[in-house]
Design goal:
The complex is a heterodimer. Chain A is built from 23 helices and 14 strands. By secondary structure, chain A is α/β, with parallel strands linked by helices. Chain B is of the alpha/beta class. The chains are: A alpha/beta, B alpha/beta. Chain A: Pfam families: ThiF (PF00899).
């Protein structure tokens, strides 16, 4: 029998032909991605493009079966393709990319449009939402999948027909008030958060003086406490400079320890109000510091002693051991800065796989825990909390990838008379391993799938004569808001024809609203218009739905600008309390998401022993998206932006806020 | 080491995991813990027939870091094996592929499997087939010694008579036994852990037959469970029944016994696939000489068996009765028969994933293992679990 005779028999020769000529996109070559790639290849798909930005890590090898030890640090997408080449069909074409799927210069709308179907095998919400949006633009079906430990889900999404990715509310990670972290910790996770996001960031991260000194963000009414915290922070900036001023690395390390664990604690102790209902912290015993100071012969700080401690990463280290590890990591981190090309501006980011940074966070968190009489944790456990590591196993990934591959058959009308698309969840019921359910219709209040999406074609974006005024005229001509304004006011038609809209380009750059017309005579090019960007048109009265226009250049246009006619913009759905996930089974933990990604407390209670500590830490140190934003923003516009500030309310802004959260996630 | 010893929480003979191992297995140790990983590392498994599901099971178990995998399969590589068995490859690209047709499967697969995880001992046997071990069973002392070196036995795509004989051997040696087969969009696995001391958290369980009140509402079930847990000090003895139960089914030991008429109608499709699978297992036992590829030709014979099965289980859907199968059922049956003996990669992945996970569940006490029959219906993505008990 031929190699493909089974599949021909199962799905029929005709349908198999469709699969053989199908071109699909697989986003992600990680846990689910490797498994799914194998399944799609064995099913004989014609052309598979696979995109992954990541490189291979040792901890991937327990499940990402296409990778070997020798592949560590290589591109996931390219290595996966090389591995499956050995067993692919001759007719299958494979195209790997080592890139971010959200890079619109590499992957524009037309590029996405070439695929019959898109498979998501991602590990973060941000990219998932992005694919969701692209597929909404293209009305292209995609299959979403994710796992967390023993649990998994596969959700086929047919844009505007079934629930989209954003229709269901995704649980956001828990965050802590700053004062809990900075002055009154009560759990190990508070100390870990402090060590990683505050202390480490202050000493070695990007210098960010103003952000954390905003009194409002401290979340405390106690003036004394606020002043103490602000002073403490200013002193830390001086400590940072001591990286360069200190005579020796040991001196530097001990100064930090004295300041953080003795002086700062003593200052906190002076604020009596804080300790009325709490146990008072006990500052580090100065004699311990002295002991280390006098350790000239390096008995305690002997490399073999340090190695011995570090090799026991599952053990709960003693105070002394934590101090030794902290000193060791501080010495190493200082060396890295001094040995860099530009020490004054060199920064180090916390990375759970960077031993120095992890040792620093683990030991300083533990010392703080001891001071506040909180249980200490092993470095192994702290790595999980600080690095937001989600357990991931081969079997769940294999199963979910299998269901994703199986569900894809529906998109080729294979067996449709029997098999309609299903959402598949793993089940913890006793009588079933899965809990399949029908697809749900999209949420009427979903901010993503109720938006009107169209193309905005421009003949020549570089044409300086194309001003915002020209575009605005075209928009007002073609997009009809009339009805709403007639209904809502009694004024004469002239005014009614001037709807109050605002226009936003890209993520959240406001370029026009009724009170902000400074840009009208500027060319589109100078306002930052380029291909593959999205223009959002909003009704300032917030009654009509938003319109998103995807910008494309089309040299064949007869006019300068093409905007489709929209006769009557529908009203925005009334905001109700958003629905929380499909109600498939009340016993089922449903809101989980991703493989190495965000977590859901409900499930974690099932999975982890130390549930209370398994909380995503809101990573306020990292905001690449807003920095990206700044880069694309023209300097001269910033003042206008500040003046307007309308942007703050912009819905897209919420997305940037969300992004914050995803950055702290693993893999 | 016997499995009992292996599972005994007091047994501390296990060597500690090295730091390298902890790093490699990090993401799974965080799920099932160090002790479970140590037990996995001590486990020696015999897998009979590589097959499509076999390939998936091998991949999952070798990745998980078991001690030893012994593969028994003396078949040669056939072209259709390449539909699912991705270890059957050589060299860097497809140019080499045709050279492997006709060679011993395990000879070709061994280097590919070993590469997945160099820490796991992979042994192959291409000289003997499982049939060489079955006829005189453990009366043959060599056979006894052979099976006794493992902690667990898995058979894939094996006929019913052989599974029956094999299960007798594993029972006599107190070895857990899994049997699994895939038929196109459908498949199943059967498990016999004989007697299993379930230390997993009952609330997180795939199996609450231990409370023996399977038809209660969720609420009362929960309270039952907690009562049960409380009474028995977090440990539940799970009783398993041998492969033979699948063949001696009747109304009294039917897994559908407690379904009410309304449920019978609403769950008909889901039940039908399970009944087809059970019928196939019985058919295979009764007519071992008929090649499975010929079942389609002998459809009448299968019909007859199916009718008998409906009768034995007292399953009367609406006015369906033996010998008169309804049109809707017939259509589904046609699809089913068309899938027999085919291997399909997503189904192998799902079934191989759930079987391997079940073994890890058994070793880790994180979830209760399946007791004792799981069906996969690729049409509906349902995976119902039944307990099939012995005929009274």
């Amino acid at each position: 029998m031929a190699r493909d005779s089974y599949i021909q028999q199962i799905i029929g020769a005709e349908k198999y032909e469709q699969i053989k000529y199908a071109k699909v996109l697989l986003v992600g070559a990680g846990g689910i991605g490797c498994e799914l790639l194998k399944d799609l290849i064995l099913m004989g798909f014609g052309e598979i493009h696979i995109v992954d930005l990541d490189t291979i890590d040792l901890s991937n090898l327990n499940r990402q079966f296409l990778f070997r030890k020798k592949d560590i640090k290589k591109s996931k997408a390219f290595t996966a393709i090389k591995a499956v080449n050995k067993f692919k069909y001759d007719h299958t074409k494979l195209v790997p990319y080592m890139a971010s799927i959200m890079d619109s210069d590499t992957f524009n709308l037309a590029w996405f449009d070439q695929f019959h179907l898109i498979f998501n095998a991602l590990d973060n919400k941000d990219a998932r939402s992005f694919i969701n949006r692209i597929c909404l633009f293209l009305k292209k079906p995609f299959i979403e999948s994710g796992t967390t430990g023993f649990f998994g889900q596969v959700v086929p999404i047919f844009p505007y027909e079934s629930e989209c990715y954003d229709c269901t509310i995704k649980e956001t990670p828990k965050s802590f008030p700053v004062c809990t972290i900075r002055s009154t910790p009560s759990q190990p996770v508070h100390c870990i958060h402090w060590a990683k996001n505050f202390l480490f960031a202050q000493l070695f991260g990007e210098i960010n003086v103003s952000a954390n000194n905003d009194v409002k963000t401290l979340g405390s009414d106690n003036k004394e406490e606020i002043n103490t915290l602000i002073n403490e922070q200013n002193e830390l900036i001086n400590l940072r400079n001591s990286i360069f001023d200190s005579n020796s690395s040991l001196e530097f390390a001990l100064n930090i320890i004295k300041k953080i664990f003795i002086d700062d604690i003593n200052k906190l102790l002076k604020i009596d109000d804080l300790w009325k209902t709490r146990k008072r912290p006990i500052p580090l015993d100065i004699s311990l510091v002295k002991l280390l100071e006098n350790d000239r012969k390096r008995v305690l700080l002997k490399q073999s002693n340090i190695d011995e401690i570090l090799s026991n990463f599952q053990k709960l280290w003693s105070l002394n051991e934590n101090l030794i590890v902290l000193i060791y990591s501080l010495i190493n981190l200082r060396k890295r800065i001094l040995n860099s090309n530009n020490p004054r501006s060199f920064i180090i980011d916390f990375d759970k796989d960077d031993e120095d940074t992890l040792n620093f966070a683990a030991s300083s968190a533990n010392i703080r825990s001891i001071i506040f009489d909180i249980p200490v944790k092993s470095k192994f456990d702290i790595k999980q909390i600080a690095g937001n590591i989600i357990p991931a196993i081969a079997t769940t990934n294999a199963m979910m990838a299998g269901f994703s591959a199986l569900q894809s058959l529906n998109n080729f009308n294979v067996l449709q008379h029997y098999l309609e698309s299903k959402i598949v969840f793993t089940s913890i019921e006793s009588k079933s391993m899965t809990n399949p359910s029908q697809l749900f219709p999209g949420s009427k209040t979903c901010a993503s799938c109720t938006v009107l999406r169209e193309l905005l074609k421009i003949k020549d974006i570089d044409n300086e004569k194309l001003t915002l005024r020209v575009l605005l005229k075209k928009i007002l001509n073609n997009i009809n808001y009339k009805k709403h304004f007639k209904d809502s006011t009694n004024e004469d038609d002239q005014d009614n024809n001037k709807p109050e809209i605002s226009i936003v380009i890209g993520k959240n750059r406001l370029i026009y609203d009724i009170e902000f017309d400074d840009n009208l005579d500027r060319s589109l090019k100078s306002l930052g218009f380029k291909e593959n960007q999205i223009l959002t048109i909003k009704d300032d009265d917030d009654i009509k739905t938003e319109i998103e226009l995807y910008i494309l250049e089309d040299k064949t246009l007869s006019n300068d600008i093409y905007i489709p006619k929209i006769d009557n913009v529908p009203e925005k759905p009334k905001k109700k309390k958003p629905k929380v996930e499909p109600d498939t089974n009340p016993n089922e933990p449903i809101t989980f998401d991703d493989e190495d990604d965000d977590e859901n407390k409900k499930q974690d209670e099932d999975i982890l022993e130390d549930t209370d500590d398994f909380i995503t830490i809101l990573d306020d140190g990292d905001e690449p998206d807003s920095s990206q934003l700044n880069n694309t923003m023209l300097q001269e516009d910033i003042s206008a932006m500040n003046e307007k500030r309308k942007i703050e309310d912009h819905e897209l802004d919420h997305q940037t806020k969300k992004i914050k959260i995803d950055l702290s996630l693993d893999d | 080491m016997s499995l009992d010893q292996l599972l005994n929480p007091q047994s501390s003979s296990n060597e500690k995991l090295s730091n390298d191992e902890i790093e490699l297995y990090d993401r799974q140790i965080r799920l099932w813990g160090m002790e479970a990983q140590q037990r996995i590392r001590c486990t020696k498994i015999l897998l009979i027939n590589l097959s499509g599901i076999g390939t998936e099971i091998v991949k999952n178990l070798v990745l998980s870091g078991i001690n030893e995998l012994y593969l028994l399969d003396n078949n040669d590589v056939k072209e259709e094996d390449l539909a699912t068995q991705f270890f059957l490859t050589e060299g860097e690209d497809d140019l080499f592929r045709l050279d492997i047709i006709g060679r011993k499967k395990l000879d070709v697969a061994l280097p590919q499997i070993q590469e997945l995880n160099p820490r796991v001992k992979i042994k192959i046997n291409t000289r003997k087939s499982i049939y060489d071990f079955l006829d005189d069973g453990v009366r043959n002392l060599d056979n006894k010694d052979f099976f006794r070196q493992f902690n667990l036995v898995i058979s894939t795509q094996l006929d019913s008579i052989s599974n029956l004989k094999l299960n007798k051997i594993t029972r006599s040696l107190n070895l857990p036994f899994y049997a699994t087969s895939c038929h196109g969009l459908f498949g199943y696995f059967f498990s016999d852990l004989i007697m299993y001391d379930d230390l997993s958290n009952a609330d997180n369980s795939h199996n609450n037959h231990k409370s023996n009140k399977s038809n209660k509402s969720n609420k009362s079930n929960k309270s039952n469970k907690s009562d049960n847990t409380h009474n028995s000090n977090n440990s539940n003895k799970l009783i398993y029944y041998p492969f033979h139960s699948l063949l001696s089914m009747n109304c009294n030991n039917s897994p559908f016994k407690n379904l009410r008429k309304r449920q019978l109608i609403t769950k008909k499709k889901r039940i039908l696939i399970s009944v087809f699978i059970l019928t196939l297992i019985n058919y295979d036992f009764k007519y071992p000489s008929i090649n499975k590829n010929e079942i389609k030709i002998n459809e009448e014979l299968f019909d007859e068996e199916l009718g008998k099965m409906f009768g034995k289980l007292e399953l009367f859907f609406e006015d369906e009765n033996p010998g008169q199968i309804q049109e809707e059922t017939r259509e589904l049956l046609k699809v089913f028969l068309n899938n027999i003996n085919c291997e399909f990669s997503p189904i192998c992945a799902i079934l191989g994933g759930s079987l391997a996970q079940d073994i890890i569940n058994m070793l880790s006490f994180k979830n209760s293992p399946v007791n004792n029959f799981l069906v996969l219906d690729g049409l509906s993505s349902e995976m119902p679990i039944y307990q099939i008990i012995k005929k009274k």
